[in-house]
Design goal:
The chain is α+β, with helices and mostly antiparallel strands. It has a single domain (2-76), classed as Histidine-containing Protein, Chain: A (2-Layer Sandwich), CATH 3.30.1340.30. The chain has helices at 2-26, 51-65, and strands at residues 31-38, 41-48, 69-76. Strands 1-2-3 form a 3-stranded mixed β-sheet. Helix 1 crosses helix 2 (51-65). The longest helix has 25 residues, at 2-26. The radius of gyration is 13 Å and the shape is globular.
């Protein structure tokens, strides 16, 4: 059971690291940015004003994480 807790902690810290790196690269283009790390890729969540910013976030995330995007759930408002 302690192994599961440790694995979760490692995943959470990796998600936070990716969120920090993306925020640095994207500036304020994406609000409330969240990254969910899965075994087969990433899910992006957040809000933005343009479809272009949503697309840029997806490309930056793939570059930074070197993983595919499973779902881009960033909302364009």
């Amino acid at each position: 059971m302690s192994t599961d807790v440790f694995a979760t902690s490692v995943v959470l810290s990796e998600e936070e690291r990716l969120e920090t790196m993306l925020t640095r690269r994207l500036g304020n283009r994406i609000r409330d940015l969240r990254v969910i790390l899965l075994a087969d890729g990433l899910i992006l969540k957040g809000r933005t004003a343009t479809y272009h910013a949503k697309q840029v976030a997806q490309h930056v995330a793939m570059e930074v994480a070197n993983l595919p995007i499973v779902a881009n759930e960033i909302e364009v408002l």
